[in-house]
DNA sequence: CGGCGAATTGAAATGCATCAAATTGGGTGG
DNA sequence: CCACCCAATTTGATGCATTTCAATTCGCCG
């Protein structure tokens, strides 16, 4: 690793935050920085499970697909989040970069040893895994019971929260919030279990109703947050 | 607890299996046996998170619903599985009994202390939580991309595997496998994100094609496992 | 300015939901 | 033991949201 952990932008939020300086130095020696270009894949579903990582910058997707090629994005990862699946010989899902990204990568076997040696880190990972499980279970409800309109409105809301600090987010205190979606229409469709056309139509409808503005092809401005929340089914 | 852990039918498979006899006695003092009748609910989504448990017998559902009452079952629990969400002040999902059930219940705060004192148990819980996360992510693909026919065929297959030993499963070595579904049509619909009518029609279709027989209202006989797997989209 | 992938828009097809009615079957009391 | 009852299931007819197929249009980069 060229850069040191002390410089790390996500140090406080990441799993490594549970380690003291000495422990961090030990972990540091096991890992290395890795850059990924948009579209690049670092793990394929069904392949051998070789690495774990902390995401430093960018957005990654976790995806699965049916035998005949229908795809579903089963999770999105933002900076400081843990990527990987300790205690498993193969990986169930593919990991790819939706934007250019930078990670701190560790060999899985060595990472598991570190986990075994540091209770605080193992505890933190358990808590995060429970949180991820809850989030994924909540998405089951959304994917199977929400309408296309609710899905798209809810997605824009969740991206507005999470994208803050990721993409250039121009939020004025009382004015409208503007940010760039890190996903194409097709990727949004793969997250929500819809088609590109349906996502596009729903966004157009929100624009027509004055709830959103769509400056440029990735940009979004939330003009009426309350209306957006209502359309997401959050009352 | 009237019955002792030594008698416990699920001792080897459950989390407690990671404890030695002395540790088990300590955990034993914290918990108690609890019986649930079919339909009974032990935790409501949004309520305070007070207990964890091991399921001894029966089948439980974990469910969420939208503001306007659409329900989705986000998980099913079978005997020996761990129920609960350590490290959270409220629960996100309701827990109810699909059949009469029996649990070994522990106060959440005390259970967390035990977890903190026994690395083996914490490790085992982390592994199980990762497995549950993978399973839930896989269900995202099924719910959003599979057709009703694929969902129902896949559900029957998964219940055939899991129900073995739960309900009276009469499997002859080479002959057809027969078992009882622990869920009503309505509950199956809530698992698969369909309606009662669609589930019924798909089962009828499988019966008409000679893939299944439906002896009685809960019974299922798999006459042609290969055809069922093909219809589930497993090639 | 020209090219090309991504996004939008339109028209038609379809799978599942919805609404409605008939049937089954397990349990109860006469 | 049988008749009845009620809830669950099945079956039928119709509607609609979303997909599918098919053109444009947009916006970015050379």
Automatic annotation (TrEMBL), chains A, B:
Keyword Protein biosynthesis: no
Record-linked Pfam families: cNMP_binding, HTH_Crp_2
InterPro entries: cNMP-bd_dom, cNMP-bd_dom_sf, Env_Response_Regulators, HTH_CRP, RmlC-like_jellyroll, Tscrpt_reg_HTH_Crp-type_CS, WH-like_DNA-bd_sf, WH_DNA-bd_sf
Ranges in a coiled coil: none
Keyword annotations: DNA-binding, Transcription, Transcription regulation
Start and end residues of each HTH crp-type domain: 146-226
Protein name: Crp/Fnr family transcriptional regulator
Organism taxonomic ancestry: Bacteria, Pseudomonadati, Pseudomonadota, Alphaproteobacteria, Sphingomonadales
């Amino acid at each position: 690793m060229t850069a040191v952990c002390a410089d790390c932008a996500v140090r406080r939020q990441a799993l490594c935050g549970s380690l003291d300086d000495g422990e961090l130095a030990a972990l540091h020696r096991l890992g290395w920085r890795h850059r990924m270009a948009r579209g690049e894949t670092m793990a394929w579903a069904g392949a051998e499970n070789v690495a774990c990582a902390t995401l430093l910058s960018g957005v990654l997707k976790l995806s699965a697909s049916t035998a005949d090629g229908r795809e579903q994005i089963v999770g999105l990862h933002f900076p400081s989040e843990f990527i990987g699946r300790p205690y498993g010989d193969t990986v169930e899902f593919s990991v790819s970069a939706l934007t250019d990204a930078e990670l701190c990568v560790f060999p899985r076997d060595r990472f598991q040893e570190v986990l075994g040696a540091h209770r605080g880190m193992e505890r933190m990972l358990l808590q995060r895994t429970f949180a991820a499980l809850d989030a994924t279970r909540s998405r089951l409800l959304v994917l199977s019971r929400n309408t296309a309109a609710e899905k798209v409105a809810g997605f824009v809301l969740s991206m507005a929260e999470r994208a803050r600090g990721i993409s250039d987010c121009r939020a004025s205190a009382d004015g409208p919030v503007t940010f760039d979606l890190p996903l194409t229409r097709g990727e949004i469709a793969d997250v929500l279990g819809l088609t590109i056309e349906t996502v596009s139509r729903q966004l157009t409808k929100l624009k027509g109703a004055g709830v959103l503005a769509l400056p440029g092809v990735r940009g979004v401005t939330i003009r009426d947050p309350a209306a957006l929340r209502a359309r997401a089914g959050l009352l």
